[in-house]
Design brief:
Layout: H1 2-30, H2 34-73, H3 75-102, H4 104-111, H5 119-132, H6 134-151, H7 156-160, H8 163-174, H9 182-207, H10 221-251, H11 258-293, H12 297-324, H13 326-334, H14 341-355, H15 358-372, H16 378-402, H17 404-429, H18 436-458, H19 460-467, H20 474-501
Helix pairs in contact: 1-8, 1-11, 2-3, 2-5, 2-6, 2-9, 2-10, 2-11, 3-6, 4-5, 5-9, 6-9, 8-9, 10-16, 10-17, 11-12, 11-14, 11-15, 12-14, 12-15, 12-18, 13-14, 13-20, 14-17, 15-17, 16-17, 18-20, 19-20
């Protein structure tokens, strides 16, 4: 499992790094002005629908069912099931695309109502969203093929495909002079990337001879199991996305720049979520599904404990950095071109607020595996909707006194509520089993984090005395030095603590 998580996490890291370069380019070209706000909405809408209908709900219903058919009935039956599902999803997505294209002004008005006070920005958001929305169709097919590859323990290509989104956007922005404005260029880059990602995963599935074909959908036990789990999964995924939609809706009423400030903060916050949390969940779900289908419940719980321990150990340094030096991070990474010091400070404050929920956010996918591996999508639905209700209420309450920071803080607290509910519900059913080794790992992580926090608090002042003398790249140099030294310190204290506590890294 360790090697699989590293494989997925490694490619996800490449994706996040190229994504960072992409966001640096977007920030430099668009800043936090009206074009940036319109593009963020146009980019977010198909991505939120993707989380509801494909990567979120679909993956959580399809992958366990496919894994069970593969384990019990063989590859031919599994491929037949996948072919029928692929055909059905293609029909649904084409219909949704046509409907959304006609109703796009209504969609944008619902999800960014504050834009109606600025007709030019509203019209631009509608136009850009019509360009980006076909991305949903392509990425849905990518999700199906990626789930099939993951079920066959082929993780690398599926994890690598998002890199194409970032490269496509970078190239599109480099050619922005060929478009009416940078927003149009970026929007076309999004849609083109969907075609490229689909081509990549289809090639890999064909090469492994596991690609689905078009087939007439018909009912059988596997299809009924899929639809039985899909409905609650859609509602649960929609609940999570409602919280994200709430950010866009509420932020659209704040001054220009609020939507894009949240976007840049969220991009940095998403780095550990993608590299660590999602990578662990991607590997853990098929692992637990196979073990539970084979009757090895203890092995499934042991795999989950390893994933949780490794996730916490890798994510803790990000939490410390986001809390201790958010302004430095945003200044060093984005403050250039149209992205000024005020924008960096606003985004840094949002990043610090988001970080409150980071431990819970990186563990959500591992916690959900307790339920999805058993084809239970109803229980996570209840937990998700409860957390979303609290999330939206907290956003409304906190936005008044704290503005953009209040929105990010509401998101963070909502994630904690979701995780706590999932853990309690799974524990009461005996669907998780935290081991003593996991507890000792958490203690070692806490000790290493405290050492790193002390370093992050005291080290910047003396180090900045030297970096301030540099002719350029002062913030970048300071962040790089703090990051390198902090990583060495954290790793040394963590490994030392694990050795003292009798925890073996190889067993994570």
């Amino acid at each position: 499992m360790f090697r699989k998580i590293l494989s997925v996490g490694g490619w996800t890291l490449v994706s996040r790094l190229t994504g960072f370069i992409r966001d640096v380019v977007i920030a430099a070209v668009m800043g936090t002005g009206p074009i940036a706000d319109a593009f963020v909405v146009a980019f977010r809408i198909p991505n939120n629908f993707r989380q509801i209908f494909s990567e979120g709900a679909f993956n959580n219903a399809f992958l366990p069912t496919y894994a069970q058919v593969l384990e019990k009935e063989g590859e031919n039956k599994a491929r037949s099931f996948a072919s029928r599902i692929t055909t059905l999803m293609l029909i649904v997505q084409v219909a949704l695309l046509g409907l959304a294209f006609l109703a796009m002004p209504v969609v944008v008005n619902l999800l960014a109502p504050g834009f109606t006070d600025e007709p030019a920005k509203f019209d631009l958001a509608v136009t850009l969203t019509r360009i980006t929305f076909p991305y949903l169709l392509f990425i849905t097919l990518v999700t199906i093929l990626s789930a099939i590859l993951n079920a066959h323990e082929r993780f690398a290509v599926a994890a690598a495909s998002p890199v194409l989104l970032n490269l496509s956007l970078i190239v599109a922005l480099a050619l922005a002079f060929l478009f009416p404005d940078a927003g149009h260029a970026a929007a076309w880059g999004v849609t083109i990337s969907g075609v490229l990602q689909l081509g990549l995963v289809w090639w890999e599935a064909q090469r492994k001879r596991i690609a689905p074909a078009l087939a007439v959908p018909r009912s059988d036990p596997a299809m009924r199991t899929f639809f039985k789990t899909l409905g609650p999964a859609v509602i649960g995924s929609a609940g999570v996305q409602i919280a994200i939609f709430a950010d866009t809706i509420i932020a659209s009423f704040l001054p220009t720049g609020a939507v894009s400030s949240l976007y840049y903060a969220d991009r940095i916050y998403q780095l550990p979520l993608g590299v660590i949390g999602i990578a662990a969940g991607t590997v853990l779900l098929p692992e637990m599904s196979r073990r539970i289908a084979g009757g090895d419940v203890a092995g499934a719980h042991a795999a989950q404990n390893r994933a949780v321990g490794l996730t916490l150990a890798l994510a803790a340094p990000f939490l410390v950095a986001f809390v201790a030096m958010p302004d430095l991070i945003m200044t060093a990474l984005f403050q250039r071109g149209a992205f000024d010091a005020e924008a960096a400070a606003r985004a840094g404050a949002a990043l610090a607020a988001y970080s409150v929920g980071l431990p819970a956010a990186v563990l959500i996918r591992s916690a959900l595996a307790s339920f999805y591996a058993r084809s239970d999508t109803v229980t996570p639905l209840y937990a998700s909707l409860t957390a979303v209700a609290a999330n939206v209420l907290l956003k409304i309450v906190l936005m008044g006194p704290f503005g953009v920071v209040g929105l990010a803080l509401g998101t963070a607290l909502g994630v904690w509520i979701n995780l706590i509910l999932l853990f309690i519900l799974a524990y009461r059913r005996g669907w998780n089993d935290p081991s003593k080794g996991l507890m000792r790992t958490c203690l070692a992580v806490a000790l290493a984090s405290l050492a790193l926090a002390a370093f992050a608090w005291f080290a910047p002042a003396p180090l900045s005395g030297w970096t301030d003398t540099l002719p350029a790249w002062r913030s970048e140099a300071l962040l790089a030095i703090l990051g390198a030294c902090g990583a060495v310190l954290y790793g040394a204290v963590l490994l030392g603590g694990m050795k003292v506590l009798g925890v073996r890294l190889a067993r994570l």
